[in-house]
Structures are given as C-alpha cells and as structure tokens.
Write a sequence for this structure.
C-alpha cells in the first residue's frame, strides 16, 4: 500500500503533516509532500487514512 | 451597521450586515440549505450566497467564472479602472490566474511552516506579557485587551514596523473592514491616503535601512527577473495586515467565548493539553471567522441561478463548515473531532496564505490563556457584541476569572 499527494490538488492546507509528520512533510511553499516512497504498513495506513479524511482539498490518495 | 431595512426573507433579500445575521447567522444558513441553497439579494447591487459546502466549494474552485478582484462586498462596485484584473489592489488575494500564481509564489515561502514555527517563542512571550498586563482582576477583557493585541504585534514584527505603531494598525484594520460600508467617498479616500502614506514611509525606511524582515524580503524578491513595483509591495503589505489581523483575533476571541460557556470543554483542554491540535481545528470549523467575496466575470448560469456580470458572490466558508452533508453532527462542537475537513481557510488556489501563522497564534493564545486562567466564564453574556461584515468574531469579551 502506498500514499501519494496530488500536487495539482494540494493547496498547502497543512493538515497532513500536522497529523502524520512521519509520513508527510512540506516544501518551501508549504505544500504537502510524501516522505520517502509512501509505502504504508498497518499502523501507518491508519495515520494516512486519518490525514486523508482531514484534507479539505481531497488531495491525498491511498493505493492498494 | 447598516441603515437598510431589516431582512424578512434571507432567500430572496439576504444581507450579511443585517442584525439577525450579525448576531447569529447559523439558523439562517440552516434554513437556506433546506429550501434554497443559493440565496439572492438585490442589495449591494445584486449578490448571491451559496449556503452549502458543495456550492461554496464549486465557486471557490471556479476561477473561470468568478474573479477575486474585489473580495469585500459593499455598495460601491469597483470599476475596471480602479481595480484592474488580474492584479487587483492587494495581490494575490485580489488576483486571478495566471498572475495569481506568481504573486502567491512570492509570499508563500515567508508563510511556510519553517519560518512560521520559528515565531513560536516570540508569540508565547507576547501572550504572557499581555496576560501579565491583564493581571489578577476578577474581570478581564479577553477581546480588547488580549485577542486583539496578538495578531497586530506578530505581523508588525514580521514586517519590521515600529512596535509603537500597533494602535495605528488596529485603526487601519477597523477602517478597512468594519467601516467600509458606512464611509462616504471623501472619508474613504482620506483614510486610504493615510494608510498608503504610512506604508510608503515604511517602504522608504526599509530601502534606506534594509533588515531581515518581510518588508525587506518583498522589496528584494524578484518576479520574472525584476523586483516588484512599490505599488505591488505596498499592496501585499496591506493584504498581510488586513488578512492577518482581524481574522485571527476573531478566531482567538470566538474560541475563548466558547470555552467561557462550556466548562467541560475547558476542563478537558486544561487536563488534556495533547487535545489542543484537534480542538484548534474544531474551533476553526465551528467559528470560522472569514467569509470571502467574488464577482461574476460574465453572465452565466450557476446551478440554475442566472448570474450577471459583476454580481457579487458571498463565499461563506463558515456556512460550508456547518453543512450536515459535509460534516457528521455539523451543528455540534466536538472538541476531539477526529475527521475534520473544515474549510475555514478557504479552498482552492486562494487558500489563506497565512493559515500556518493563524493556527500557531490561535493555539498559543489559547494554551497560554487557559494556563493562566484555567476556569472562567462570561462576565456579561448579553454584552458580547459580534463584528458585522465578512470577518465574524466577538469584539467586547469580558470574562470573569473563577478561583
């Protein structure tokens, strides 16, 4: 499983890196970025889903 | 306030300056969502108000049909001459694509989490200084003497303005936002000239004495290989003041107002400080202070509404945040709400550029206030007044400190 951020949709709302700072960081514009390759295990999946559920722009995607 | 007749039907004659809307807009929005999700009014020369999350989102993301060249709705409609698209008076909030992208890219690095988080110790110190000034009195004014002092001081510091000008800042903000609808043209022009003169003086001082602050950054930053024109620098500085002060103090004030009336929530925050990040998001959802404005670019049909060129659209992010179609138990304040896609900072390309700063100020302001006063209630619930206009928050907020 893998988490990605759609850079076209992301507007830098800042929710993902506040909720899951081990999974998400930010660039110098404050837009969200995925740390590493975005691979998820069971515990990080929950955090990724929580970040997804808090992204107002619906910019976070989780692939099986 | 407004000297217009009182509103009888908000679906066909809405007015966000009407006392009923100013005092308690939430039942109005709930009613509109149920029967007329896009309200209309002939006031202000014609305006629309989508009351649902879906409608607000659609307008916010549609820069093809809606322009941002004036975002504060009034009876004075801008002409192409005084607010030329795509730049507008205060880029990038008043800018449209494609200019908007570059104007925004200029300021975002200054408001990204890195530089903003570095302000935390200074903001904490400021809050504590203000709390020291409030002292041991039984009644303290959490609005006039606390919430309203924090954002001006923080932004003045970022811009590198003399600290003694804080009071003047608050006057400017008051004039631009609260007074916009009542002033005659001469008064408006006089105040605008006064504001511009002050900013020109600060710009000149920064040219003569460059230093490590936001004003010097704006004077040196390049757009397409060229430094910014001073009009652009000044417009951006004014934007930062207008957008960052009244809005943030409203959020701080509304949060304190809530805690003063909900002792269970207050006790939880005092006892479980780790809840603060989610609580802050719920404060932002439930009491989102900012309603934006757009203008219709050309005649077009929006969800069956015949919108005309230059009609206003009132973009109610606070209304979207209370839409039960978008939030479970939307009308309940849930301090540990885990899933919260609120849109207090807007949606799409105009997402509030200062959101990281606003969150930081709000969190520290509340943390320090409840640390100092772990128990308090409203001193005079009837005496709390709410600002009219597009930024909603309590102005007069006396709270009684409990032992």
């Amino acid at each position: 499983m893998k988490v990605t951020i759609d850079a076209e949709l992301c507007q830098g709302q800042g929710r993902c890196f506040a909720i899951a700072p081990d999974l998400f960081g930010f660039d110098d514009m404050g837009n969200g970025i995925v740390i590493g390759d975005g691979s998820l295990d069971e515990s990080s999946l929950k955090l990724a889903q929580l970040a997804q559920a808090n992204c107002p722009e619906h910019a976070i995607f989780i692939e099986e | 306030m407004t000297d217009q007749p009182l509103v009888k039907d908000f679906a066909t004659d809405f007015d966000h300056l009407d006392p009923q809307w100013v005092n308690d807009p939430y039942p109005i929005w709930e009613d509109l969502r149920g029967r007329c999700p896009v309200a209309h009014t002939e006031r202000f020369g014609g305006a629309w108000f989508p009351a649902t999350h879906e409608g607000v989102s659609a307008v916010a993301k549609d820069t093809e049909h809606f322009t941002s060249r004036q975002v504060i709705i009034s009876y004075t409609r801008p002409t192409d001459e005084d607010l030329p698209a795509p730049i507008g008076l205060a880029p990038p909030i008043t800018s449209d694509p494609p200019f908007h992208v570059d104007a925004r890219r200029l300021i975002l690095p200054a408001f990204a989490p890195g530089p903003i988080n570095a302000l935390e110790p200074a903001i904490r110190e400021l809050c504590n200084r203000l709390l020291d000034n409030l002292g041991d009195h039984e009644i303290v004014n959490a609005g006039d003497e606390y919430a309203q002092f924090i954002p001006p001081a923080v932004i003045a510091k970022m811009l590198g303005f003399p600290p003694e000008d804080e009071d003047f800042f608050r006057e400017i903000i008051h004039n631009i936002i609260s007074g916009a609808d009542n002033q005659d043209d001469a008064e408006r022009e006089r105040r605008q000239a006064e504001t511009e003169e002050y900013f020109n003086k600060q710009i000149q001082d920064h040219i003569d004495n460059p230093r490590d602050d936001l004003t010097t950054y704006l004077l040196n930053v390049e757009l397409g290989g060229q430094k910014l024109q001073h009009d652009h620098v000044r417009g951006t500085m004014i934007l930062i003041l207008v957008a960052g002060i009244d809005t943030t103090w409203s959020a701080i004030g509304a949060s304190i107002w809530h805690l003063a009336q909900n002792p269970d929530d207050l006790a939880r925050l005092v006892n479980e400080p780790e809840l603060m990040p989610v609580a802050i998001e719920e404060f932002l959802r439930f009491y989102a202070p900012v309603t934006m404005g757009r203008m219709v670019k050309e005649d077009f049909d929006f969800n069956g509404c015949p919108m005309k060129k230059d009609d206003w659209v009132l973009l109610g992010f606070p209304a979207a945040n209370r839409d039960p179609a978008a939030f479970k138990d939307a009308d309940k304040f849930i301090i540990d709400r885990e899933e919260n896609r609120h849109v207090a900072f807007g949606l799409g390309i105009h997402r509030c550029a200062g959101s990281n700063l606003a969150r930081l100020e709000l969190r520290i302001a509340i943390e320090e206030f409840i640390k100092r006063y772990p128990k308090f209630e409203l001193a005079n619930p009837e005496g709390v007044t709410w600002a009219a206009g597009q930024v909603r928050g309590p102005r007069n907020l006396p709270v009684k400190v409990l032992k």
About this structure: The two ends of chain A are 5 Å apart (CA to CA). DSSP finds two helices and four strands in chain A. Strands of chain A lie at 2-5, 24-26, 32-34, 60-63.
